[in-house]
Amino acid sequence: MRKDFLWGGATAANQCEGGWQADGRGMAIVDVLPQGENRLPVMQGVMDYRTLPEGTRYPGRDGIDLYGHYKQDIALFAEMGFRCYRFSFSWSRIFPTGEEAQPNEAGLKFYEDFIDELLRYGIEPIVTICHFDLPLHLVEKYGSWRSRAVIDAYLRYCEVIFRRFRNKVRYWITFNEINMLMHLPFMGAGIRFEAGENPLAVKYQAAHHELVASALATKLAHEINPDCQVGCMIAAGSVYPYSCRPEDVWESMQKDREAYFFIDVQARGAYPNYAKKLWEREGITVDVTEEDERILKANTADFIALSYYNSRCVRTDGQGEASGGNVFASAKNPYLTCSQWGWPIDPMGFRITLNALYDRYEKPLFVVENGLGAVDVLTPERTVEDDYRIDYLRTHIQAMMQAADEDGVDIMGYTPWGCIDLVSATTGEMSKRYGMIYVDQDNDGHGTGERIRKKSFYWYRDVIANNGENL
């Protein structure tokens, strides 16, 4: 591994920050994602959040109150030995509606204090500019990213944060898991479908606007601070054919391309022919100007960030059992065991995914999410014996190190997801825990909020201390 390898952890404002009405913050997408059975339809953009019944609980509004606990939490990250910490800004904390002439100074001051606290411990901030986040006003006024007006709002936000934190933040990620727009359009990008619309056409037009915004943000960041690096990010995980049946192999290639599509544009600077042919077959016209094409070509990403939780498997014979795995449909792979949520556990798939991305793009990779969601039990001794999480992280770190040391993949760092327990993005639960720090809070938000070190806390501290040499 690199001697300057960035070991750390990752969270996001929409899942942990809370403080949803503090210091002038405006309403955001996360504030209308409900708990319970209506969550998925709202995230998919097929149910209007405005029709939710009274008394609905919105778990992201409170998160784990990182807003009120950040000094304590950062001290725990420092105790684990973090060299970096990946987190996100809440856009509506800085621009409450997205259209203000001037930013909310209280919001900027919060992030300045937050970053200063990280730097005081020698922890490198890795900032995601937009992590499943958007001021709700932009959703209601413009239909979110379906409108070019949101590009301007995003760039106004970017310019403020790039200038404010020019000398404090070296690594930026423009959009979290940008390909999630195609799977959970409202959660990922604030897209809600109207009757009679072609959802695929809406998603691709919104995707184009995000891609142009990402390229322009990259350009702007480099102008303000030529020494900073700007990355794109994909929800990654190689897709296996269930068999060597050619139809299965072809289907796996098609599924991989669904994710590659975004990074093909962000890393290579142009739309791939397979995407153009898809639009042609589906009768989709995406408004792409010559100026858009020039912008995309001239402002590609410096590095590729990725999340990896599991691989996927596809079969085309209509037979067999389905498997879980985030929001991506998958056939059950008979060679893999699964997590409590049905996600396949596949460290070799991690190595395969890293190699595939590096072979395709030849840009440095940054693993900014990887982890195991599980039900943790707090013992009478006030700890969590999460050996299952240690086993998952150990085997995946081993696979990552093989990709780097044996295969030559250039990997910048590793920030496992949910270094501290937080609200699950997909299910809205606290019981689906990822952290190495336990937070005393249940699915309904009840609990003391106390932070408690798990067994994995001490294990990961040792991994960082020896740069992964002893797992």
UniProtKB/TrEMBL annotation:
The keyword Amino-acid biosynthesis does not apply. GO terms for molecular function: beta-glucosidase activity. It holds the Pfam family Glyco_hydro_1. Keywords: Glycosidase, Hydrolase. One of its GO terms (cellular component) is cytosol. It comes from the Bacteria. Gene3D superfamilies: Glycosidases. The active site is at E369. One of its GO terms (biological process) is carbohydrate catabolic process. The keyword Hydrolase applies. Belongs to the glycosyl hydrolase 1 family. This is 6-phospho-beta-glucosidase.
